[in-house]
Specification:
- About 75% of the residues lie in helices and about 10% in strands.
- By secondary structure, the chain is an alpha+beta fold.
- It has 2 domains: about 190 residues, Four Helix Bundle (Hemerythrin (Met), subunit A); about 160 residues, Alpha-Beta Plaits (2-Layer Sandwich).
């Protein structure tokens, strides 16, 4: 027995209750088996008798039905020509009459010899006499008087067969009723035996209930009541009184041992509660201290992030962007080139003057959104006013720069509506790659020249600094 991790040995050698229960189980099981056997036997007797006589009645009725059908066919043939009458009777004989009588003859019946002789006699008539009469009818096709005599002879035979079948049916009903009465007596005997077994089963069950109530249920209720009080205040309770030297006594002894172990464990628990309380208080203090440090660190990170970002667009501000690009240029190698995009919104003053400053802020946010789409992996910043800047690492070939510049110009070349009014937005872009340039100031200056060129030559376009260098060389 296991109680809070403590194994308590319980002596379970004496089994008087179990032995008595085993003795009581035997008559209960035998009673159930006896009742089951009686029920099955009754069902088998009824089923066998019913099936046997049902099959017997069916075959006799089928033969009688075919004889009646053949008689009707014979009446019809009285009005038909001789050749047609013969063919009709021959078909009815082969298909219906002979088949039914043959099946009847081959069936086993619970008849005496006289009834069996009746069946054999009518079968001989059907099998030999009627075919002979049909042959006479066939030979007398051209003789009307001969045909009438042959049909009369067939009618006499079929009438004899019908009379014999009626006698067989009467005898079959009498025999079936007598057999049913005999079987019913057997069933009554089985039912009486089943009732006696059932009464014995009830007696054993009542005794078993009384025994269980007196020797098992009541002691268990006493232990349960003690257990209910035990959970409230077991320390002040007296031990369970052990009266029987059986399993219930073993359980009571085990409960007493559990009580002793619990009292001992409760004392140890009280001794350790103070120490555990102190440990928990220290743990709570540590958790609060760590949470406070984490909150302070998170707050500093938020403040630092906000200091690096432009409040309107969420892009890097000028100081943060310059620091990032300075670091990139300091660590730049041949395998880590990039490109700088200097972006300016065309006629931004017209947006503010026409639509208002709120619309101007929305236009700047629109440009920031377009930059996030065109430069998904780049550093994006707002230098101030309507001047934006982007740096795309690992991008330096002119074809890619052309594509990026064209994409940004196309996205920003649009009508911008606000408050029922609209203006045309566009941007001018100056682009320079870092190939051959190690200083950010020089990089920015070249991008600014390219941007100025875009502004001077019509706006709404981008210019690569490399194309200006080639133009100057030419």
């Amino acid at each position: 027995m296991l109680v809070k991790g403590v194994v308590i040995p319980v002596e379970m050698e004496r089994k008087p209750i179990r032995k008595k229960l085993r003795i009581l189980y035997i008559p209960v099981i035998l009673s159930v088996l006896g009742i089951t056997v009686c029920i099955i036997s009754s069902m088998l007797i009824y089923n066998k008798t019913f099936r046997f006589y049902t099959e017997q009645y069916y075959k006799i009725a089928r033969a009688f039905e075919q004889v009646s059908s053949f008689t009707s066919t014979l009446d019809l043939c009285q009005k038909l020509p001789s050749s047609t009458a013969y063919d009709t009777l021959a078909d009815a004989y082969d298909i219906e009459l002979l088949s039914a009588c043959s099946d009847l003859f081959s069936t086993r019946f619970e008849f005496d010899s006289n009834e069996r002789q009746e069946i054999e006699s009518l079968y001989d008539i059907v099998r030999t006499s009627i075919p002979d009469k049909l042959n006479v009818l066939k030979d007398s096709i051209n003789d009307s008087e001969g045909c009438k005599d042959a049909l009369a002879a067939v009618r006499a035979d079929i009438t004899t067969v019908a009379d014999k079948l009626n006698h067989v049916i009467e005898k079959s009903v009498i025999t079936g009723n007598k057999a049913y009465d005999n079987k019913r007596i057997d069933v009554y005997l089985i039912e009486g035996l089943m009732i006696a077994i059932f009464i014995g089963f009830i007696i054993v069950t009542v005794y078993l209930i009384i025994f269980i109530e007196k020797r098992i249920t009541k002691p268990i209720r006493d232990v349960a009541e003690w257990s209910r009080m035990f959970k409230d205040d077991y320390a002040d309770m007296s031990d369970i009184e052990i009266t029987d030297n059986d399993e219930i006594g073993d359980i009571s002894s085990a409960f007493n041992m559990v009580k002793a172990k619990l009292c001992e464990a409760n004392k140890t628990k009280r001794d350790n509660e103070s120490t555990l309380r102190k440990l928990r208080e220290e743990e709570e203090y540590k958790k609060k201290f760590v949470k406070q440090l984490y909150d302070e660190k998170r707050e500093k990170e938020i403040i630092s992030s906000e200091a690096k970002r432009d409040g309107l667009t969420g892009l890097y501000n000028r100081r943060s962007f310059d620091a990032l690009i300075d670091e990139f240029m300091s660590n730049k190698s041949v395998s880590s080139e990039g490109a700088l995009f200097l972006i300016d919104m065309d006629n931004f003053k017209n947006v503010n003057d026409t639509l208002g400053h709120i619309a101007g802020d929305e236009a700047l946010k629109t440009l920031a959104g377009a930059m996030r789409i065109v430069f998904p992996g780049g550093y994006l910043g707002r230098y101030g006013g309507d001047e934006f800047i982007a740096f795309v690492p690992s991008t330096c070939d002119d074809e890619t720069l052309d594509r990026l510049g064209s994409s940004l110009c196309q996205k920003m070349d649009r009508e911008f509506e606000h408050g029922g009014k609209s203006v045309r937005l566009s941007v001018s872009v100056g682009i320079v790659n870092t190939v051959g340039i190690d200083d950010y100031a020089e990089l920015y200056m070249k991008a600014d020249k390219a941007l100025y060129y875009s502004k001077e030559h019509g706006r709404n376009q981008y210019t690569l600094a490399s194309s200006l260098d080639n133009f100057a060389t030419d």
